[in-house]
Fold these 2 entries.
Entry 1:
Amino acid sequence: MTLIDQLSAQVPEGMSPHEWRARLELAACYRIFDRFGWSEVIFNHISLRLEDDGDVPTYLINPYGLLYGEITAHNLLKIDAAGEKRAPSPYPVNRAGFIIHSAVHTARSDAHCVVHTHTDTGMAVACKAEGLRHDNFYAASLQGKVAYHAFEGITTDLDEQERIVESLGEKRYLILRNHGLLAVGAHVPDALMSYWILQRACDIQARTDAMQGANQQVPDTVLARIPEQSKPMHVGTARRGQMFFDALLRQLDLGAEELRGNP
C-alpha cells in the first residue's frame, strides 16, 4: 500500500474522496517533478481536472509563489476554467499561466491532467527548426505522436487558445516552438509517464547533438513496429503509468505530513 493509499482513507471534512485522492496524487507529482529538476522556480504548472465537482468544471493547480517542493495536498488551489478560485485559499492564482492548460482541458475530454514545463533540454529542442528527431530509444516511440505550435510570444492572449488546441489536435504531446513542452494524460500517473518519455527523448537528443559525428538513424520499418512492441510495458494495472508513479513515490520517500500538509 502506497502513502497515497493510506492517506486517501483520511478524507478531510467537507471534501469528496475523489478530490482528496486527486490532491494527494497531484501534490506527489509536483514533488516528483521537483526531484527530477523539471520545476521552474514558481512558474509552470501541472493541472488536474476534478471529475465529480458539480456543473462547473474545476481544476487543481499549484499556488502561485510556492516552489514545487512546497506543494501539498491541502495547499493546491481549486479553480475554474477562467482561472478563478472556487475554494478559499490565501495563495494567488497565476491566471496568465493557466491559459494553455485551460484551453487544453476545455477542448479535450480525455485531457484530465496537463503538464507544461520549461526544462533546459525541452526548450532547447523546441528552439531547433527540426524539432524532436526520432533517432533515440525514447524519441522513436513518439513517432507520429508529437504536435507543434508556433511561437506567438508570451502566452497571455486568450485568442491564442484556439490555435493551441488546433495545433495539439488529438495528440498526447505538444512542443511549443521556442517555448517548452506539454503532455496530457487521463490521470496523474498517465501524464507523468507520458511527460517522462518526452523529456527523456529531449535529454538524449541534446546530449547526442553535443557529440561529434553523425547520428545513427532509425529505419522507418523499425519505427513502424514500436507501437505494437510497446504494449507489454502498460500491463499490470488498470491505469497506465500507475506502477511507474508508485515506484517514483517510493523513491521520493515522502512523509505523511509532508504530502498532506496543513488544512
Entry 2:
Amino acid sequence: MNNYSIGKIAFSDQHSLTQIDHLLAQEGIQRDPNLDYLCAMFDEDFKIIATGACFGNTLRCLAVAKNHQGEGLINQIITHLINIQMERGHSHLFLYTKCESAKFFHDLGFWEIVQIPEQIVFMENKRKGFENYVERLKSAVEISPVSDNKKISALVMNCNPFTLGHQYLVEKAATENDLVHLFMVSEDSSLFPYEVRKKLIQAGIAHLPNVILHDSGSYIISQATFPSYFQKNDDAVIKSNIEIDLQIFARIAQALGIQRRYMGNEPFSHVTNLYNQVMQQKLPEYGIECVVVERKEKNGTAISASEVRQAIKDESWHQVKQLVPQTTFDFLISDEAAPIIKKIRQSDEVKHY
C-alpha cells in the first residue's frame, strides 16, 4: 500500500490545475468546466499522479499517470470522492467514462445505464437504480397494452415558472392523446425551487385528467445526464449530453408505451434549440415521433419563462399577468413568493442560456 496523499485542489491554484490538465490530456480527457470539487494525489516530490472531481451527484475527470497505472490509485481517488459525496448527502452517484474503462468501474460498484458507442458510458452506483425509477413511473399509472387506438405521449418541462405557453403545450398534447406523461425537471437548479415549480404545474394542469405528472429524478435533464442545460458549454459537449439524455428517455418511452414527444419551438434559448434539433433527428431512430408545436404568443412574441422572469425583475406586473395562468399569478403576488421575487430582482441574468 502506497503512502501517497490526496488533497483538495482550489480552482484558483493554477500550478496544480496545469498539472491536472496535462494528466487528463494524456487520457484523452478535457477538464470539465462544471466542477464543484477537485482533488489530486501527490507523490513524494509533490507531483500530481492521479486526479478526480465531482459536480452535483456525479464523479468526473478521473485519471492516473501512466507510470503509476496498475497501483490501485484510481480506487483510492474514487473512495475519497465517494466519501466527499456522502458528506454532502449524495448516496446515489453517477459517472461518465470511456467505453473501454466501463468494466473497471463496474468492478468498483458502478452499473451501466446507457452508452454512446466508441465514446462514453453513463453509469450509476445502484445496481437497479434506473430499473427502480422506471417501475415507479409504471406504478403511477395503470399501463394498458399499446395499440393503434391508444395514443400515449410525453412532455419534459422545467417550468421556471409555469406559463401560459407551458399550459397551452400540455393542453394540446392532452387533447390529441389518450394519455400524457409530463416529466418535470426535478433538479433544484432554477430560480423557482422544485417544490414551487411542482405546485404551480399541478395547479395549472388540474383540469386535464389524462395528464400524469412525474419527477424526472436524476435521469432526465439533470446535472447527471445533462449538465449543459444548467451551465454554459460548447456545442459538442451539449450534443453529447443530449444524446445520453435522449437514450435514457427512449428507454423510459419503451417501458411506458410512449409513441410521441411534444415540444415547443425555441426562438430564445440556444441550448434548448440545440436539444430540439437533436431530438428531431434522434427520437425517430427509436420509433418515437417528434411533435413540434408553435409557441403560444402574446402581442406577437412567443411566451417564455425567461420573459416572465425578466418582467418580474423589471417589476412589470401587468406584463407578468398576461404571460402566466391565474394560478401562477396568484402565487407570484403571495407572501410565499417574496423570497423568490427578491432573488430574481438581485440576479444578474434571468434568461436561460
